[in-house]
Amino acid sequence: xxxxxxxxxxxxxxxxxxxxxxxxxxxxxxxxxxxxxxxxxxxxxxxxxxxxxxxxxxxxxxxxxxxxxxxxxxxxxxxxxxxxxxxxxxxxxxxxxxxxxxxxxxxxxxxxxxxxxxxxxxxxxxxxxxxxxxxxxxxxxxxxxxxxxxxxxxxxxxxxxxxxxxxxxxxxxxxxxxxxxxx
Length: 183
Known about the structure:
This protein is mainly alpha-helical. Helix content is about 65%, strand content about 0%. The chain has helices at about 15-35, 50-75, 80-95, 110-115, 120, 135-155, 160-180.
C-alpha cells in the first residue's frame, strides 16, 4: 500500500498561494493595460478613448459655460455655484481640456468677451437662463443629471483609467444634482 506524498514534499507553489495571488495579478494586468493605450495612439484617427476623453472635456466646458450664464443672470447665486463650477472646470482639465475657457464666475461681462476661438460652437449649446432662481437651479441640476447619466453609460465601453475617471466625474455630477436640488 502506497501512501500519498506529504504536501511538504512538493517543490512548486501551493494551490492556496496561487488562489491568493491570482486576483492581485489580474488587477495589476487590468491596470497596466489601460495605462499603455494613451501612449500608443498612433495613426491618423484618434482612438475611441481619445474621442471619448475629448467629448467629456467638451461637455464639462459647456456645463461650466452654463454655470457662468446662470451666475450672470442671478448674481446672488454666485457664492453657491462657484464651488460647483470650479469642480466642473477641474473635470474638464482632468479630461485634457486646456485652461483657456475659464472666465471668472463672478464677472458676468467676461462671458461676452471670451468667445474667441472655441466658444462659437458652444454658445448655442447654452440655453437661455430662466428668470426665477429656482428654475435656473433646476435647469443646472437637469444638465448635471443628464451629463452624469451619459458618462455612466460611456464608462462601460471606456478603457481602464478613462472608465475610472468617467465614473468618478459621474458620481461628482450626481452629488452636484443633490446640492443644486436641496435647498
